[in-house]
Amino acid sequence: MPTPLPIARWAMPTVSNMHQTFDAAIEMNLLHANQRGADHNRAHFDQWGITCINLMSSPGAGKTQLLEATLKSLENLQVAVIEGDMTTELDAERLRQHGVPVVAINTGRSCHLDSKMVAGGIQQLQQHDPQSLDLVVVENVGNLVCPAEFEVGEHAKVALLSVTEGEDKPLKYPVMFREADCLLITKTDLVPHLDVDLAQIEANVRQINPTVAIFHVSAKTGEGLDAWCNWLQQAVTVQSNRLQLTV
Amino acid sequence: MHETDMTKALIGTIRDWWDAQPEKPTVQKVHLIVGTFTCVEPASLQFAFDVQTQGTFLDGAELAIKDVPLVAHCHTCHADYQPELGSQYACPSCHSPMEDIRSGRELKIDRLECVAA
């Protein structure tokens, strides 16, 4: 049911005006339509007993490679991917090699996924027996700004920051790191070749978001993947327990 | 770039309201409240609004954006403070991390100034 719009509140007309002027109170969130769509998507996931995570980062932080490594490690979970990409299906093709259902959404010129685009992805997921799935990973468009404001129906937000991006990124793009439930510091295999201070990255993130779970991972060497996969597994367990309680 | 989408959403919401009015008023001014701890650039929103309203029922309407500063609350000091965007988010007195945000996340269509038909 769409929220009914408020009726105009008539103010006292000003005498000098030929026509009556009035203020109409709207008092609505600018993104209420997106939010409503996100709630609708989440209701679908809940109905199917699926946990949905929204994976976000700048371009090239390693979302797809991390996802490939994660798919190999998560043997006990049935996973599907909704893949957002501006124009190509390159990432979707890579992920399909791992034998999981992958729905590709081309966002065109849009720099983020919104709930309407993901609703289209959910519709395509219906061909893949959604009730058998445990986890849907939405891989967002590479961008540290816009995706932070557009919920898509996820139960948790996961942000990636690669070690080559610099310690200051959480300070410069604070909304993304504030919104994240989990932060993966990726490409840690490169640390010996860089002047990067991982403790400083963590300190910068912590001052914005004291409760975020942080893992250091390398999709290349496998470092930290167990801890990250345990977090995912736990997120799925918590979510399915919650659903059993509400049924 | 997402300001374009946000402007579409803004115009869509106002249009829904306008369509529901029995006599169509002229909207003169749209009042928005935008927190500084959002990913919204007011200048881009202003630009997108001017472009997207051309030739529509909102042609000529003004967009007034009220900035709301980021205010956080420190539980240790029992006090509100304004973090320095881009550099310092922890409490300036005791360096506790930013826990509760009191304001700054707003993205709200507040009200419309109209002239009756």
From TrEMBL, chain B:
List the InterPro entries hit by this protein, alphabetically.
Answer: Hydgase_Ni_incorp_HypA/HybF_CS (IPR020538), HypA/HybF (IPR000688), Multihaem_cyt_sf (IPR036280)
**Which Pfam family name is an example for this entry?**
HypA
Name residues in a coiled coil.
none
| Span of the signal peptide | none
Statement: the UniProt record of this protein carries the keyword Acetylation: no
Question: Where along this sequence does the record place binding of Zn(2+)?
Answer: 74, 77, 91, 94
Q: Which residues bind Ni(2+)?
A: 2
Q: Which UniProt keywords apply?
A: Metal-binding, Nickel, Zinc
Task: Describe the family membership recorded for this protein in Swiss-Prot or TrEMBL.
Answer: Belongs to the HypA/HybF family.
Record function comment: Involved in the maturation of [NiFe] hydrogenases. Required for nickel insertion into the metal center of the hydrogenase.
PANTHER family xref list: HYDROGENASE MATURATION FACTOR HYPA
Name of the protein this chain belongs to: Hydrogenase maturation factor HypA
**Species the sequence originates in:** Leptothoe kymatousa TAU-MAC 1615
